[in-house]
Amino acid sequence: IANYWLRPGNTVSSSNYLSFLEDTLSRLRNKTVGLIRMDSGFFTKEILDLLEDKHLNYIIACRFNNRIKYSLTHEHAWVEVVEGLEISETTYKADSWDKTRRIVMVRQEIEKRPQAAGKRVRQLELFEEGNDFGRYRYSCFVTNLGLPAKIVYDSYRGRADSAWLFQNYPTRVNLNTGLFGQNKGQAYPLSGKVFKNKAVFPVHLGEIKGFLFAIQHWEILMTDLGFMQLLKEHYVSERNIGFYADKLCLSPKYLSQMVLAASGRHVKDWVRDYVILEAKALLRSRQYTVSQVSDMLNFPNQSFFGVYFKKAVGCSPSAYQSME
C-alpha cells in the first residue's frame, strides 16, 4: 500500500491534481498497481478518464451533488448485508462525462450504527413524502471494478485504515526493497519478528502484524489472477476451497490463511456472499421462479437452496421475492 496526499487546498480548483496523480504513479515505477482509492476531491472526469486510459482499477468517493443525493434518497433496491447497513448500486453519468459509470451506494441507519461513517442528506425537498431519510448516513463510490457491491465497499474502507497507519507513525515502505521502517533510514523486513521492538512500534503488536501481513498478500485477493477474480468466474459451479487453492497453486490451508489475513473474512464467507447477492438479484427481478433460481445457481434441488438462502438471509427465497 502506498499512501500519497495532495494538500494545496481544494483539489478540484487546483491546476496540479492531474500532475499529482501522474507523479504518484511514476514513483511506483515498474510496480503493478492493483487498486487506486481516492476521496471525493478526485471525483472528476479528468481523473476517471486518466485511470481508465491506464487500465487501472479504482474506487473513488463521489461528491454529493444534488443528482447523487437524489439517487441515494430515491433508491429502492437496498440489500441489507448486516444489521443497519444496506448496499445498492446504479449507473450514473455526469453532464461532463462521455459515458455512464457504476456507482455503489451505502446507507447506514444511525440509530443502529451510531459510529457509522458517511453523510446525512439534509435537503428535505429531495425526500419522498412519508420517508424519513434523515435517519441514515450515506456513502457513495464510483468504480470500474466488476466485484459485488459489498466487496467494493469493504475494499474502499481499508483506505481509512491505511491513512491512519501512515499518518500516526512516521514510517515508510521502500518501494524497491519491500522494507518497512522509520524515516531515519532504518528499515525492517516485512516479517513478524521485527515487531518485538516496542520502541519502534509503540502500538498493539498483533494489529500491526496483521495489517502488514494483509498488505503482503493483498494481491492474492485483488489481481487479475487472484482469488476474487476466480471466485467471480466460478462461484456458480465451484464452492469448495480446494478448487480455488488448486488454481492458485496453494494448499487449501494456506489460501484460507491468506484470504483471512487480507480481508478479515473466510473463503466460505466470500463464496456465500457472491451466491446470495446473485440469488437476491435474480429473485428481486421477478423474472424467475425460486426453482429456476436454484437451478441457475447450481444447487442440487430447491429444498437445499431454500435452507442455504434462509440461513444467510433469515427468510425463505419465496418470502424474499414477495417483499415490496
Strand order of the largest sheet: 1-2-6-5-4-3
| Cα-based radius of gyration, to the nearest Å | 22 Å
Report the order of strands and helices.
Answer: HEHEHEEEEHEEEHHHHHHHHH
**Mean pLDDT metric:** 75
List low-pLDDT spans: 10-14, 170-215
Tell the overall outline.
Answer: globular
What summary fits the major beta sheet?
A: 6 strands, mixed
Number of beta strands: 9
Q: Work out the helicity level.
A: 40-55%
Strand-residue fraction? 5-15%
Number of helices, counting only DSSP H or I runs of 4 residues or more: 13
Secondary-structure class:
alpha+beta
Tell me the span between the first and last alpha carbons: 42 Å
Write the layout of secondary structure elements.
Blueprint: H1 17-27, E1 36-38, H2 45-53, E2 58-61, H3 66-73, E3 79-82, E4 85-92, E5 101-109, E6 136-143, H4 149-168, E7 171-174, E8 179-182, E9 187-188, H5 205-216, H6 218-222, H7 227-234, H8 241-247, H9 252-263, H10 267-285, H11 290-296, H12 302-313, H13 317-322
Parallel strand pairs: 1-2
Antiparallel strand pairs: 2-6, 3-4, 4-5, 5-6, 7-8, 8-9
Helix pairs in contact: 5-9, 8-9
Give an overview in words.
The protein contains 13 helices and 9 strands. The protein has 324 residues and is of the alpha+beta class. The strands form 2 sheets. A 6-stranded mixed beta sheet has the order 1-2-6-5-4-3, sandwiched between helices. The protein has a 3-stranded antiparallel beta sheet with strand order 7-8-9, with no helix packed on it. β4 and β5 form a beta hairpin. α5 packs across α9 and α8 crosses α9. The longest helix is centred in the middle third of the chain and has 20 residues. The chain is globular, with a radius of gyration of 22 Å.
